[in-house]
Amino acid sequence: MDKPYVKQHIENGVGYIEFFHPAHNSLPGDILAKLAETITEAGTNDEIKVIVLKSGKDRTFCAGASFKELININDEATGKVFFSGFANVINAMRKCPKFIIGRVQGKTVGGGVGLASATDYCMASKFASIKLSELNVGIGPFVVGPAVQRKLGLTGMSQIAIDANSFYSAEWAKEKGLFTQVFESNEELDEGVKAFAENLCNYNPEAMKEMKAMFWKGTEDWDTLLAERAAISGRLVLSEFTKETLERFK
Predict the structure, then answer these.
(1) Under a CB-based contact definition with an 8 Å cutoff, are residues 4 and 33 in contact?
(2) Rounded-to-integer distance, Cα 160 and Cα 145, Å
(3) What is the pLDDT of residues 97-129, one digit of tens each?
(4) Euclidean distance between CA atoms 180 and 133, whole angstroms
(5) Distance of alpha carbon 15 from its chain centroid, rounded?
(6) Phi, psi at 249, each rounded to 5°
(7) Domain made up of 5-186: CATH architecture
(8) Domain residue ranges in the chain
């Protein structure tokens, strides 16, 4: 069986960071920690001018947090640590001084929508429908909410957060501003990502660094904000409603 991983390779100045988990690229805490660490390190690597964030295999981009870990949470402290996983990755992406290009090849759910939203420029295939499913299990998209709202606006974010059963198409996500381009196939997506990222490498790194800081202005409180949001989710996951729901999903 395929093993989970986070790996990086550099090609023509582009640092490709890829994550994978056999359960539809759902991410447990150790993989999230490794992902945050790899993004932070890439931000300081002089060989890398632009970063591409992608996931392994051809289908799901990211199914969110690890369900196996979620159902084993039994106290608020553990819950906060669990939900801080995606918060730490989003904050690493926010603080990274280099542009991060998202490559979203398939469906993305929950925390995965947060990762896509935290990229600086996100390209997708037509198969990349999105869903915020957290309300289904009695919690909400508290941790990823700021990143998603920053891209979709409050109206778009609240729409998919409340309609927690529905996938919204890649074209819908493009219209709302999450995706910049939508390609007909993963092959075309890869070609588009490669060409775009390598072209960015021709630009002044200092200019791109200053632009990124400008784009993320107003998010300086996210270390505290996302930690507070993780605590809310950590509390809600212990509710009777959520525990009963998770038992049914087992």
Answers:
(1) no
(2) 11
(3) 999 999 999 999 999 999 999 999 999 999 999
(4) 23
(5) 17
(6) -80, -10
(7) Alpha-Beta Complex (3.90)
(8) 5-186
